[in-house]
Amino acid sequence: MSEQQSIGIIGVGLMGHGIASNIVKHGHSLTILNHSGNQPVDILLSQGAKLVDSVAELAKSTQVIILCVTGSPQVESIFYQEDGLLANLREGSIVIDCSTAIPTSTVKLAKAVQAKKAFFIDAPMTRTPKEAAEGRLNLIVGGDEEIFLRVKPLLNCFAENIVYAGKVGTGHRLKLIHNFVSLGFTAVLSEAVAAARKADIDANVLIDILDAGGGQGVVLNRMKPYIQSNDDSSFRFALSNAYKDLYILYGDGY
Questions:
Q1: What gap in Å lies between CA 118 and CA 147, rounded to an integer?
Q2: Over the stretch 211-248, which tens digit does the pLDDT of each residue have?
Q3: The overall pTM is greater than 0.90
Q4: Which one of the listed residues 175, 198, 224, 244 is annotated catalytic?
Q5: I want to staple 38 with a disulfide (CB 3.0 to 4.6 A). Which of 12, 45, 66, 136 is the partner?
Q6: Are 196 and 206 contacting, i.e. CB atoms less than 8 angstroms apart?
């Protein structure tokens, strides 16, 4: 899939907007589903992207469809709504689900897509909207390896590190495990910051000590600006997101 492709994207939010901009940058034809949750798409439209008002229209006009929504309830709604994605998939088309979803739902959807003679892979993301805009996301991919290799050139447009995890659903399972570790590290760091503040220790001194010792790492680097400023208003990951991921990991859908 190194040639230019007709790509559709559903979910042009904080992460999806970065994905969309990099797809356009690499010369692919892009169709965007119009939705109130999208970030502003004027620049994308000026670069040649097309805006449509229905899932059906998007599905009928694209070869590859990327989903970048919150999770399984939204993905299932896209698939099963009246005149939705499943009813309008073209034979041979490929669905790439970049959401953080319930693995059992993912496997069920993949079977439904296969029955339509189309293909499904799960490719959840790690990193932040900043890396999405820079085309430097991490992707964990589950699905048929041949289909993964077919779409990998497209994934390279917006991802820096791409790991093939195994059969369909494995990507979403590994994403949940990753988030469990990342959230655990973040919780420990947050408790350390609270303890340092209670002891009247300067935030920069705390960071220097952690950076030179056992606390050095991705989580500390990501949290530094918010620790130093004592302002988390621009941190774009809420406790509700963490709860969703942990609930899936420990629930029946894993």
A1: 10
A2: 999 999 999 999 999 999 988 877 777 788 788 888 88
A3: no
A4: 175
A5: 12
A6: yes
